[in-house]
């Protein structure tokens, strides 16, 4: 790592000091440097497309946060630029590097529970950002359907090894921030796969504060020969009971949603792909398909009707 | 008239019948008046009558002629509910009818009408209403201390009924024309009633995906997913069916996750349990199932106090209409709107 950039000087400076690297507040200064091969884009979703395209055109490989972009038009521009420049672009669908899900995926693909026919995935927390934050805003982060839903969409595609044929989504605007941003903060999304199998996503930013620390995620898989049940709560090996603070499931990572090692393995994988000139395990088609699932879900929640996939956003 | 309510049992077709018989026998204000069955599990019914030392009747009309009889539990196949209840109501006996109330809304309406015309109580036993975790949540929601109900995710899985232990033949559970549906109907209808009870509102929109997914040689569905929107905005999703593999530590897997504007209730089991392990397997054993006794007690008290039972025929009809809407949605791929009757 040679440089960090953030429009907030304190942020880039903190990284520069901690890792003894250069700091920028203007990303163009960073892109101009010939000795930088790759950038890791952690900007808000609405900036993915413009920055990724610019970085690729400056000759940088790009690891981009999820979702790939706000909409399919932007995603297609990014994919086109990656093809044109011949550089690597990978979207950080980090659940695929998380040992919880790597092991569950192994159990499924090895046939231990037969063919999966129902997968329910819940990711629930209290989003700690104000209504002005970009996560909440439909035009910036896409709200919980896009921001969290895309993790779940990718997980379904990964675990089922196929694309869904339709989606139906319902949502609520529970918290003040959600109502101000006019954006859902609790949603149920039903994806139907070609053989009738179902992926049921529950994504929420409206759970009580601290819920996400110990109870963030659940994953149930019903198969033709067996069943898998996972939850952060039940997999936590320890409960702490304190006379002042009561009972708590301790957290072992900064974010229970995504462990530090999962980020590390994701970045290591992308760097290995650059060093070996091999294709990332998460393809651009994967990233686009996951985005397609959630933009279709957004549309379904908006109109209250099921939406077929493939989804053509030009039709809506 | 004796101080105890005399209750007869009609049919051991339903796997729940032995439990209801036992609960009637053990209830201090009820008396088991007799057991009638000419159907699929007649031999089991006859053996139970012998065991409890009560009269056994080959057909239920004979049971209804018993002068002291005040009420019956109806455990026939749902397709027979309408015909049986017409006779029971005509004899002015109160009715505890196992679920689903009928296989069609037409039949349900006829059943409600015959009970209403005769002025008899009609109750359908939905277990969750008498399960302690759900009672606790319902009281918490009603207290107003937990803000507004937002959403519920419910799981209701059992094993294939034909694998149930005991002597009863459960083959009709796999025939939708007799049962009203397959696994989603059989096991889901309990949770559907619970969702409506917790939401405290009528359903307005239903979307369902239901099919023969697990035991693919069945002629009926065994797994379904349903999204329900209630008139007050509460959202609910139910996953239900015969999805529990033999290795699950209990017959049932029942979970409710209930979100309000303040609180999350995570129910991981309908009953309290301990775990027992031997050399081969681990089993989760319930140490108290008060729901059957609670249901029978409410039915008995409704008769003694001449009040409505906790779960009415209208409740059962509403649950059936939601379940049937989910099946219709699964067939058409469209959202089904429910018009409150």
Explain how this protein is built.
The complex is a heterodimer of chains A (316) and B (341). Chain A folds into two domains: 3-92, Rossmann fold (3-Layer(aba) Sandwich), CATH 3.40.50.720; 95-262 and 289-315, Dihydrodipicolinate Reductase, domain 2, CATH 3.30.360. In chain A, strands 11-10-6-9-8-7-14 form a seven-stranded mixed beta sheet. In chain A, strands 3-4-5 form a three-stranded parallel beta sheet, sandwiched between helices. Chain A has helices spanning 9-19, 27-31, 48-57, 72-85, 99-109, 143-147, 149-160, 176-181, 211-215, 232-235, 260-276, 284-303, and strands at residues 3-5, 22-24, 38-41, 61-64, 89-91, 116-124, 166-172, 186-192, 198-204, 217-223, 227-231, 240-242, 246-248, 307-308. The N and C termini of chain A lie far apart (43 Å). Chain A is built from twelve helices and 14 strands. Chain A is an alpha/beta fold and 316 residues long. Chain B has helices at residues 17-26, 42-52, 60-64, 81-90, 105-118, 132-143, 176-179, 183-199, 291-304, 313-332, and strands at 5-10, 30-36, 56-57, 71-74, 94-97, 122-123, 149-157, 203-211, 223-230, 235-241, 253-260, 264-267, 272-277, 282-288, 336-337. Chain B contains ten helices and 15 strands. In chain B, strand 2, helix 2 (42-52) and strand 3 (56-57) form a beta-alpha-beta unit. The mean pLDDT of chain B is 96. Chain B is of the alpha/beta class and 341 residues long. The chains are: A alpha/beta (316), B alpha/beta (341). Chain A binds chain B through residues 113, 117-118, 120, 122, 166, 168, 170-172, 174, 186, 188, 190, 192, 196-198, 200, 202, 204, 206-208, 211, 215, 220, 222-227, 233, 304-306, and chain B through 150-151, 153, 155, 157, 205, 207, 209, 211, 213-216, 223, 225, 227, 229, 233, 235, 237, 239, 243-245, 247-248, 253, 257, 259, 261-264, 266, 333-335.
């Amino acid at each position: 790592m040679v440089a960090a950039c953030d429009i907030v000087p304190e942020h880039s400076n903190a990284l520069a000091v901690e890792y003894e690297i250069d700091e920028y507040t203007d990303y163009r200064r960073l892109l101009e440097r010939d000795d930088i091969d790759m950038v890791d884009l952690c900007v808000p979703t609405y900036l993915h497309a413009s920055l990724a395209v610019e970085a690729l055109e400056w000759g940088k490989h790009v690891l981009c946060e999820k979702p790939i972009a706000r909409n399919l038009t932007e995603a297609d521009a990014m994919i086109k630029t990656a093809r044109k420049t011949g550089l690597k672009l990978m979207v950080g669908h980090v659940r695929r590097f998380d040992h919880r899900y790597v092991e569950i995926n192994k159990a499924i693909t090895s046939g231990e529970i037969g063919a999966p026919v129902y997968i329910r995935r819940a990711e629930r927390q209290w989003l700690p950002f104000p209504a002005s934050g970009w996560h909440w805003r439909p035009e910036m982060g896409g709200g919980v359907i896009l921001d969290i839903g895309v993790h779940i969409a990718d997980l379904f595609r990964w675990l089922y090894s196929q694309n869904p044929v339709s989606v139906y989504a319902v949502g609520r605007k529970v918290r003040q921030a959600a109502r101000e941003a006019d954006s859902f903060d609790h949603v149920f999304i039903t994806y139907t796969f070609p053989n009738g199998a179902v992926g049921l996503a529950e994504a929420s930013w409206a759970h009580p504060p601290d819920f996400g620390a110990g109870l963030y995620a659940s994953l149930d898989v019903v198969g033709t020969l067996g069943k898998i049940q996972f939850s952060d709560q039940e997999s936590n090996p320890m409960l702490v009971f304190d006379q002042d603070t009561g009972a708590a499931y301790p957290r072992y990572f900064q974010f229970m949603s995504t462990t530090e090692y999962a980020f590390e393995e994701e970045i290591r994988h992308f760097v290995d792909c650059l060093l070996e000139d091999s294709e990332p395990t998460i393809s651009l088609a994967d990233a686009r398909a996951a985005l397609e699932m959630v933009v279709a879900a957004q549309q379904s929640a908006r109109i209250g009707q099921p939406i077929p996939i493939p989804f053509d956003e030009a039709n809506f | 008239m004796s101080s105890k309510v005399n209750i007869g049992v009609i049919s051991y077709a339903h796997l729940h019948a032995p439990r209801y018989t036992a609960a009637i026998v053990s209830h201090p204000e009820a008396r088991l008046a007799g057991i009638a069955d000419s159907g699929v599990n007649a031999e089991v019914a006859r053996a139970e009558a012998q065991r409890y030392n009560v009269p056994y009747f080959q057909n239920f009309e004979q049971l209804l002629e018993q002068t002291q009889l005040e009420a019956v539990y109806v455990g026939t196949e749902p397709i027979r509910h309408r015909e049986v209840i017409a006779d029971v109501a005509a004899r002015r006996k109160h009715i505890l009818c196992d679920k689903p109330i009928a296989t069609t809304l037409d039949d349900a309406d006829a059943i409600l009408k015959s009970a209403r015309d005769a002025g008899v109580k009609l109750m359908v036993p939905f277990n969750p209403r008498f399960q302690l975790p759900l009672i606790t949540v319902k009281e918490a929601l009603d207290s107003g201390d937990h803000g507004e109900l937002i959403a519920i995710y419910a799981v209701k899985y059992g094993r294939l009924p034909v694998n149930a232990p005991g002597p009863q033949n459960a083959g009709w559970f796999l025939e939708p024309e007799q049962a009203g549906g397959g696994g989603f109907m059989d096991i889901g209808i309990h949770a559907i009633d619970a969702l409506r009870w917790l939401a405290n509102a009528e359903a307005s929109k239903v979307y369902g995906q239901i099919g023969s997914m697990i035991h693919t040689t069945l002629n009926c569905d065994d797994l379904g997913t349903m999204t329900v929107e209630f008139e007050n905005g509460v959202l609910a999703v139910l996953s239900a069916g015969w999805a529990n593999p033999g290795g699950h530590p209990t017959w049932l897997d029942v979970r409710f996750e209930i979100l309000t504007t303040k609180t999350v209730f995570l129910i991981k089991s309908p009953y309290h349990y301990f775990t027992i392990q031997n050399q081969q397997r681990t089993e989760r054993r319930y140490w108290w199932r008060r729901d059957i006794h609670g249901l029978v007690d409410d039915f008995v008290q409704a008769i003694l106090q001449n009040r409505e039972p906790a779960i009415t025929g209208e409740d059962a009809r509403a649950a059936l209409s939601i379940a049937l809407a989910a099946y219709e949605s699964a067939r058409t791929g469209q959202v089904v709107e429910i018009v409150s009757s």
